[in-house]
Amino acid sequence: MRFAISLLVYVCLASLVGTVVPQGRTPNAYIDQFGPFWFEVLNKFSIWHIYNNWWFLLTMAFLVASTTLCLARNAPKMLKEANSFREQIRTSSLRSFHHRIELETPRDVSKASGSVQAWLKKQGYGLRVRNEGEAVLIAAKKGSGNRLGYIFAHAAIVIICVGGLLDSELPVRLQIWLFGKTPIVENMLIADVPEQGRLSLRNPSYRANVLVPEGSARDTAVVNVDDGALVQPLPFSLKLKKFIVDYYSTGMPSRFASEVEVTDPDTGKTFDATIEVNEPLHFKGVTVYQSSFDDGGSEVELVGHSLTGEKIVELELKARVGQSSDIKFAGPGKEVKADITKLRPINVEDLTAGEPATPKALSEHVASVTGSAAGKKNANLRNVGPSIEYRLTDASGQTTLFHNYMLPVELDGMSVFLAGVQEPGQSGFRYLRIPADDHGSVKEFMLLRAALADPAMRKQAAANLVQSYRGTTGEQKALQTSAERALDTFATGGLGAISEFLERNVPKAEQQRAADIIARLLSSSVAELYRLTRVRAGLAAIGDSPEEQTKAENWSRLAVAALSDLAFYPAPVLFTLKSFDHVQASVFQVSRTPGKLIVYIGCLLLVLGVFTMFYVRDRRIWVWLRPTEHAGGTSVLAAMTSQKRTLDFNREFEQLQLALGRLNPPTSTPPTAVH
């Protein structure tokens, strides 16, 4: 019993951890929450999937075995005890009871026995009468069902654990261990999955996921097992006719709904249904939940902007989300492979921190629908439009994830494009701010980037800068040389290269002053380069009004920061989203959970057991009636006991005392009670 209680406490503590720590998220989400060190420590115990861990399932199995053994050993004894009246008790034993009554009555034994039995029956006691010669023993009991409370409570623990094990991964893992099922770890079509990677249609218990794009139908789901997956056939097919998303005024989703057509292959009949969060579909023993939503293979059109070379190179890429494309640029090492991983038509962001937070997981969207996040209002949230997420893999196999927004957003009073980068081993995105031009595009910035890479344009910009400087010929020549050197150094490595140049060539005491001078010189040089770029591109010249001059200066300042950051941009190309044809897809969780009914039964037994143990009191009364030495008189010896001697028990004993006292005439001596 101690072992079972210890296991139960252990299971409760593990369940507490599984409740506090969100289950089934991506490793990056846990790294963000706990940090790399604690992620590695906690990952060894697999607390991200605590309810399906081998050690948790083993503990549950031991708990079931231990409690079942305890129940099997003690339940028959309890039932026998509950049915027994203990009529073998002797008078010597009754005198040792704490609550006892002794008296004599002039009534004879038969009349006294009849009066006592009538009173006990009126109080709801069950009776058993035993005659021993002229003496009579009346054994009474009430509340024997108290013993059933212990049996119900212990049986409930076993039943709930069995139901939980039945609805866990244990049935699937048993098929892997005993019947040769092998999770598939390679990418392949479901039609190509071999038999050992498929579960039976008669699989008694499973939880699987199925993604259904709009206009498509699915009759199989995927059961995730560790790093692989097994295919689970469904007893029906689901066709997604339409996916519906409604939004709050903040842009957060307020309702998910999937209009589906369900087809029964056994009868060929179809019917329509609507599946929403908290409103699942139940059919043929399988429950279909609206889990989340995803992209169903949207077609996107991207524009790739080259970030190297002196020429403007743009290429258009038409692809489908989830599709790979090989992209080649001129020159060695400029070949990359692009995988379009995600399209987000709506992005609700709080940009008060200067950049978006980590893109929201689907669980957060589901939380907003179920109400746990719907009431949280943030006046800073706004929809910043669509975004595209893609992955680039270079010739060496290095992979980097990118997250770029389609439309410019306003930050610090300036319109900028946000281009996010997540390098391997990092969590979250770092965003590059690219200033938008008057047409809301990155065209002018890309022209400036190409001009900065052109030595002739840098030299011309430095020469034009000197023309506006009034000084001697020597001073103008020195200024031009300094401007050319600043642009050349900046073009090779951004502001970092200029900082390294100052550290190598300028004494430490003068570095700050030199940095201020070069910063102003670089800003003016880039501004002049920007003017040359606009002229060469046939764009209108910047006006002379203070507003236009200030706007141009701010644009140039942002451009300098963006050009400097490009030195660390881990790709030779930047993709912007030109257009897209969005295709929605619903992610359903399908489950067959026969253990659910078992758990409900166990919970009912647990409630009955706890109620019975706490509110049903076992009370027993024995009354020995013997003839006295005086003719016709009766000697009465009674005792009362209970497992819980409460105030109610004391009151009942007093009632028993009064009832036995009424056996005497009013003038007789009152009964003697000991308690």
Automatic annotation (TrEMBL):
UniProt keyword annotation of Transmembrane present: yes
Compartments where found: Membrane
The keyword Iron is annotated on this UniProt entry: no
Gene Ontology BP terms: cytochrome complex assembly
Gene Ontology cellular-component annotations: membrane
All copies of domain ResB-like, residue ranges: 1-654
Keyword terms of this UniProt record: Cytochrome c-type biogenesis, Membrane, Transmembrane, Transmembrane helix
InterPro entries the UniProt entry points to: Cyt_c_bgen_Ccs1/CcsB/ResB, ResB-like_domain
Its membrane topology: Multi-pass membrane protein
Transmembrane segments: 54-72, 148-166, 597-616
A Pfam family that the UniProt record links to this protein: ResB
PANTHER family: CYTOCHROME C BIOGENESIS PROTEIN CCS1, CHLOROPLASTIC
Name of the protein this chain belongs to: Cytochrome c biogenesis protein ResB
Native organism taxonomy: Bacteria, Pseudomonadati, Pseudomonadota, Betaproteobacteria, Burkholderiales
